Amino acid sequence: MISPLAYVDPQAQLGKNVEVAPFAYIEKGVVIGDNCVIKSHASILEGTTMGQNNVVCQNAVVCAPPQDFHYVDGTPTHVVIGDNNRIRENVVIAGGTYAEGATRIGSGNYIMDQVHICHDVTIGDKCVLGIGACVAGECVIEDCSIQSNGVLLQQRVRVGRFSLMQSGCRVQKDVPPYVVLGGNPASYHGVNAVILRHEGYSERVLRHISNCYRIIYTGNFSLEDAVIKIPEQIPMSDEIYNILEFIKGTKHGIVRNFVHE
Predict the structure, then answer these.
(1) What pLDDT, in 10s, does the model give residues 181-202?
(2) Catalytic residue flag (residue 137)
(3) Residues 116, 119, 189, 208: which is the catalytic one?
(4) pTM, full prediction
């Protein structure tokens, strides 16, 4: 399963049934779980820990040195990847800036061609990063979110679960859960109802989420006052709680631009 034309350092740890194609490059200290596929010209660099059933395609680089002025050459850097991810061609995933940190990617994600994931990013489970998306350092992307082709996330942006950013969005502030963003500057375009229905959310829950965001975006309230008004007017559920906690946790605000649904 390991091509004689590949380079695999003797100190790398490969699980069962790992396939390594010709001209792949795997450095010392790398840990790769069972049933992974490393295709031609992929580079898995020191500091990578990868779970099971991952596919890393041609010319991808995992655990590249951070492109961060705070990074000191030679400092150990780390990338931790879960299970069942698809990392397509020409993807670059940088490691953490400091030895105690890491870039972390969960399970079941689809990372498309030419995506760049910078240092110390955290990505949850079942996310999609479209062709050419760029995620700057220290961003946090929660489960089941979609970044379409060419999306740019500025440093330290938080992205809520089940959110959708349309192609070409440039995002400088936090993206709340369950929303659709589009345009430049990125603006709220409504609730991500198509995906939420596909995932089994009821019409009642969707209506409550939509009403919640009407208060935030069209209610002429400050964000602080909207957080107070929402529990007074909308029945509490896990989804409304997630929205409120996300907003309370923002450090530099959420995207507030609004386009009528």
Answers:
(1) 999 889 999 999 999 999 999 9
(2) yes
(3) 119
(4) 0.95
